[in-house]
Amino acid sequence: MTRLDMINQCFCGESCEEILFSLEHLATQVQEKWVIDAITSMKSANPLGLKIFLRTIREGRSKNIEQCLETEYIAISNLIAGKISHNYYEGARAMLIDKDKKPQWVPSKLEDVTEEMVAKCFSRSFTEDDDWLPLQLPTKTSGTHVGASKL
């Protein structure tokens, strides 16, 4: 089996849990450093972030670049605003401020991240008192940047 075959086999899972399970199963069959590195990386990463990333990648396959940028902007705006969790700041604390490299993710396990939590990250509902405004990309015809404006 080639490396590409192994990657395709493991990452075709519908969920992060399935992908991790496939990687762990593969690790019992082959001695490949990248497999162990992938498992270690997934287990130490922000569980909510992993699920957001997987959804973004999967949905992005059928979107154009403008739609992808808008989706990512909405997700990161919700994450930075702390609407779902404070993991964005926890990661910065653990890696950049305290440098203990021991983030305390909430939730701490993939199985505790609900689909509702992930869906909230992609919610377009910006409240009146939010400083976050929808992304406005420059138009192709004008060549000038268009400022953000409320929906």
UniProtKB/TrEMBL annotation:
Similarity comment: Belongs to the enoyl-CoA hydratase/isomerase family.
Reactions catalysed according to its record: 3-hydroxy-2-methylpropanoyl-CoA + H2O = 3-hydroxy-2-methylpropanoate + CoA + H(+)
Pathway the protein contributes to: Amino-acid degradation; L-valine degradation
Keyword Isomerase: yes
Keyword annotations: Hydrolase, Isomerase
Function: Hydrolyzes 3-hydroxyisobutyryl-CoA (HIBYL-CoA), a saline catabolite. Has high activity toward isobutyryl-CoA. Could be an isobutyryl-CoA dehydrogenase that functions in valine catabolism.
Gene Ontology MF term list: 3-hydroxyisobutyryl-CoA hydrolase activity; isomerase activity
Pfam families: ECH_2
GO biological process, one term: L-valine catabolic process
Source species: Helianthus annuus
Enoyl-CoA hydratase/isomerase domain sequence ranges: 3-122
The enzyme's E.C. designation: 3.1.2.4
Protein name: 3-hydroxyisobutyryl-CoA hydrolase
Highest taxon listed in the record's lineage: Eukaryota
